[in-house]
Amino acid sequence: MKQKRHIRITPIILYIIGFGFITYSAYWFIKTAFKAESTLSEVLPETKTLNKEYKQLITVESQNKVRVIRTINNKVRNAFSILECDSNILMIYKIGVMAHSSLNQIIKLEQKNADITTNIIYKGFNEGLLKFNYASGPPPKSLDIYLTFWGRSLKKLHENESIVNYYLELQNLSIAYEKNGVRDICVASDEGRFIHKNIPVSVLFLKRNNAVYFMLMTGKNEKETLRPNLLYELIEGAFKQ
């Protein structure tokens, strides 16, 4: 009978494997720490003012209905402004300058879980019922908008060359600028890492002077009812002024 051969792992092989693991762990730790430090260095002090560009997105008649809660400033990306309107929260963010294509041609919609991208460091803030995260570093050049969401009862309220407006009960959503690319902005109901409630939100993209703006409105708390067309009414006609 043939005897079974026993494969022996010599100590030197174990040393090599262990050394490789320790080296990789140290590299990963240093890389992560460097990214975290870089992320902190990008952050600028918050303000309670709305810049002129964002203000002009809202109709003159509606500007007295909104109050600035805070503006989150950053060295390498555009500001996030948080407003209050009729007991609702409105977030405004300028994605950037896009191609001359119509807005309804560059937005690619997909329904699936929209969690943050792994191995990417995010900076975040909470507002109302939602948690907002954005990737560290300058955002990539925007050619298309890949909007991924998970929730229910999605309705497309308005769509043309300059406005795309959705209403849904949201658990989470993300924005990327290429298919299967890094999720640059992620929004989720603030219930924990893996558990999310369905939160009524209005999501609106507005194109003006070849720049695209991302707006999201939701109630301040669960007792508030968000009227689906409220966000559209705030900006309707502003891009024609």
Helix count, per DSSP?
4
> SSE string, helix = H, strand = E?
HHEEEHEEEEEEEEH
**Beta-strand fraction estimate:** 35-45%
Shape: globular
Q: How many domain regions?
A: 1
Task: Pick out the low-confidence regions.
Answer: 27-38
Indicate the radius of gyration in whole angstroms: 22 Å
Largest sheet: 11 strands, mixed
First CA to last CA: what distance?
A: 92 Å
> How much helicity do the residues have?
10-25%
- Tell me how many strands there are: 11
Taking all residues together, what is the mean pLDDT?
A: 84
Class inferred from helices and paired strands: alpha+beta
Write the layout of secondary structure elements.
Layout: H1 11-42, H2 52-55, E1 66-72, E2 80-85, E3 88-97, H3 103-106, E4 107-111, E5 122-127, E6 130-135, E7 145-159, E8 163-176, E9 185-189, E10 199-208, E11 211-219, H4 230-235
What does this protein structure show overall?
With 241 residues, the protein is α+β, with helices and mostly antiparallel strands. It is 19% helix and 39% strand. It is built from four helices and eleven strands. It has helices at residues 11-42, 52-55, 103-106, 230-235; strands at 66-72, 80-85, 88-97, 107-111, 122-127, 130-135, 145-159, 163-176, 185-189, 199-208, 211-219. Strands 1, 2, 3, 4, 5, 6, 7, 8, 9, 10 and 11 form an eleven-stranded mixed sheet that branches. Strand 7 (145-159) and strand 8 form a beta hairpin. The longest helix is centred in the N-terminal third of the chain and has 32 residues, at 11-42.
